[in-house]
Write a structure and sequence with these properties.
This protein has 425 residues and is α+β, with helices and mostly antiparallel strands. The protein has a domain at 7-207 and 219-224: Hypothetical protein af1432, CATH 1.10.3210. It is 47% helix and 12% strand. It has 19 helices and ten strands.
């Protein structure tokens, strides 16, 4: 990084493989030097995807810088058009800092532990923003309740007209991570017409008089490119079968450690990838941690496309982590495997291709952008999902038996677990 000086204060220029030069002003530099933000250097952006895509070792740190850069570009273009003239400068500054800090509460190894039942990383943002380093950096801005307002932007609770740049269908975080992830994984997916999309961002006034972030009609094709990029990356990278196998193994070993009292859940959001893995590998009975280190991943016994699964089925696999663990242990026993030897997976992210923001027509008419993409959104989400059963050793399992389990409700599964009958019969 190169440091310069301007009348407004210090700045640094970071060389980035995606956006070339990222300029950080004095307020951002104070945040950058804080301990919570430096921790992000040691949190991989894509969790265990590096076990499949060797280049996927980039971190939340550079992704946060990229989101900050894009926030600056978007705000600059809005200012050139005079669209933020009525918005306080401090709001724009807080939006840029919120883009920089949007992942400050992230757990090690991406989103795996949120799937395992731990609180969302957005919900943890306020806790990290209260760290003495960040509290000092933000108090120096001279903006009342800067930390609280940044937390509101991150959690989607802000009333700022610019909030959609941080949390929503078109937050700048998505534009950076899709482009960056595709580049680092070396895959031809994740292509987004970034320049067109950024230039199409506009502030629209809704019928009730509220201002919010929207997209001009001329950017609709670029918005579609964002939607299809998300679909392709989820289907081919984020939900790749080996990535999901490693993710399920990691979730299970952490859950076991927390349940046995060998690991404090409150410590996890403050640690790093390697520190957590070192702790797990040091436990007396954590064979899954050693398997992950050696990339001895569980194999697929069942792999069904979501199109074979009834639309409302499998909800308990997504939203009831404790129930899933109990079912997995029962399945492992039936398959004559050790506890934790069978793992169920049916990832879901309905907002993956959801678009819910206003579209400004060439003649000033405002319509929901979601109407243009709604017909394909559900189909793309279902097409990306797979229902899988992973196991430590090869076994023969009838896919129909796993499908029948997914068709049950959570309450029905609780009843089944009280019986002595085989779940896979």
């Amino acid at each position: 990084m190169s440091r310069g000086h301007t009348p407004s204060g210090d700045f640094e220029v970071v060389r980035d493989p995606l956006w070339n030069n990222i300029r950080l002003d004095g307020a951002a530099l104070e945040v950058l030097d804080s301990e919570p933000f430096q921790r992000l250097r040691y949190i991989r952006q894509l969790g265990h995807a590096f076990l499949v895509y060797p280049g996927a070792t980039h971190t939340r740190f550079e992704h946060a810088l990229g989101a900050y850069h894009l926030a600056g570009r978007a705000l600059g273009l809005l200012a050139e058009r005079g669209e933020v003239a009525g918005i306080a400068q401090e709001d724009a500054l807080l939006v840029r800092l919120a883009a920089l800090l949007h992942d400050i509460g992230h757990y090690p190894f991406s989103h795996a532990l949120e799937e395992a039942g731990l609180p969302s990383h957005e919900a943890l943002a306020a806790e990290h923003l209260a760290h003495p380093d960040l509290r000092k950096a933000l108090s120096g801005l001279g903006i009342p309740d800067a930390a609280g307002r940044i937390a509101a932007l991150i959690t989607g609770k802000s009333a700022s007209p610019l909030a959609g740049l941080i949390s929503g269908s078109l937050d700048l975080d998505k534009i950076d991570y899709l482009t960056r992830d595709a580049r680092m994984c070396g895959v031809p997916y994740g292509t987004v017409d970034v320049d067109r999309l950024i230039h199409s961002i506009t502030l629209v006034t809704l019928p009730g008089g509220q201002q919010t972030v929207g997209v001009h009609e001329k950017g609709l094709s670029a918005l579609e490119s964002l939607t299809f990029a998300k679909y392709q990356m989820y289907r081919n990278v984020y939900w790749h079968h080996a990535v999901r196998s490693a993710t399920c193994m990691f979730k299970r070993v952490v859950r076991n450690a927390v349940a046995s009292g060998q690991l404090e859940a409150a410590w996890i959001p403050h640690t790093t990838d390697e520190a957590l893995m070192e702790r797990l590998r040091g436990l007396p009975d954590a064979p899954l941690a050693e398997r992950l280190r050696r990339r001895r991943l569980y194999k697929r016994l069942v792999d069904l496309p979501a199109t074979d699964v009834p639309a409302q089925a499998g909800g308990w696999i997504v939203g009831h982590a404790d129930l899933v663990a109990r079912v997995e242990d029962r399945l492992a026993a039936e398959l004559r495997l050790e506890p934790g030897g069978a793992l169920l997976d049916f990832p879901a992210k309905p907002e993956m291709v959801a678009i819910d923001l206003p579209l400004l027509g060439r003649r000033g008419a405002i319509t929901p952008a979601q109407l243009a993409l709604e017909p394909v959104a559900d189909a793309l989400h279902r097409s990306a999902r797979r229902l899988r059963l992973f196991a430590a050793d090869t076994r023969t399992v009838n896919p129909s038996a796993v499908l029948r389990l997914a068709e049950h409700s959570a309450a029905e599964m609780e009843v089944l677990l009280e019986t002595d009958g085989a779940l896979l019969s």
